[in-house]
Amino acid sequence: LLSSNHLQPSSTIIIVFLSLFLVPIKKSIMEGETAELNHQHPYIIVPDDYREYGVDEFCVPSHYQNDLEHIILPHGIIKDRIQKLAQHIVDDSPNEPIVCMCVLKGGYQFFSELVEDMKSQIVSAKLSNTRIDFEFIRCRSYENEESTGKVKIEGCSSLGALKGRNLLIVEDMIDTGGTMVKLISTLKELEPATIRVASLFVKRTPRSNGYKPHYTGFEVPDEFIVGYALDYNEYFRDLKHVAVLNDNGKQKYKVK
Predict the structure, then answer these.
(1) Which of 43, 42, 46 is nearest to 19 (CA)?
(2) d(CA 119, CA 130)
(3) Taking the model in full, what pTM does it have?
(4) Which of 125, 159, 165, 239 could pair with 227 as two cysteines, CB 3.0-4.6 Å apart?
(5) Per residue in 98-123, pLDDT tens?
(6) pLDDT band at 84; cut points 50, 70, 90
(7) In Å, what is the CA distance from 223 to each residue of 20, 55, 84, 176, 203?
(8) How many angstroms separate the CA atoms of 26 and 39, rounded?
(9) Which of 175, 222, 238, 247 is the catalytic position?
(10) Distance separating alpha carbons of residues 40 and 62, to the nearest angstrom
């Protein structure tokens, strides 16, 4: 499963620690949306032939037992990866306040853990001026399994104070990239000093417009995944692992 041309000496420990079905690589696909940072950090690819974990191998809420194909990422691996993302973000940040913007609802769990890890990193680095402020918005684009093609952004009317600030957008999943591109375009009109994006997941799909965030946790196959606050019509947010939804779950929770 591991391709030798993807391996760097510094990443070997990460591979062993995160298990053999994950492959770290570096990519520079497109420039970032900020004047201070125009590259992407290393991220982890979950290949198409990844190791599947049985639903019965982990603690899963009983009401979802028959709705999942298998588990793709256990909770512990996700938590460790978030700690690394927090380290990258703090290392890249000037010793100035950061506005962390959570994209609700799916991003709230990632946001919560990422911010806590960033706080620890800031204390360890003794960055006396790096205060973290919060903003919360909603972007809607999904119904059932498909992106509607339209993006509804809620909360922008209260974001005028972003002018001249260092902004970090925290998102759970980037699928086609359309939602994020429109969100960044809207936020640029508010004239923040910098804009960076952290997404826990980026979907590997031919529908992508090519956008890649500055900080990515995992690139995942083109499957409909749920858990760790990723939902299917508002269900599965209470599942702490990331799993693939099966046909039974799709029909059971489909919008009528």
Answers:
(1) 46
(2) 9
(3) 0.79
(4) 239
(5) 999 999 877 889 999 999 999 999 99
(6) very high
(7) 20, 17, 25, 13, 8
(8) 10
(9) 175
(10) 39
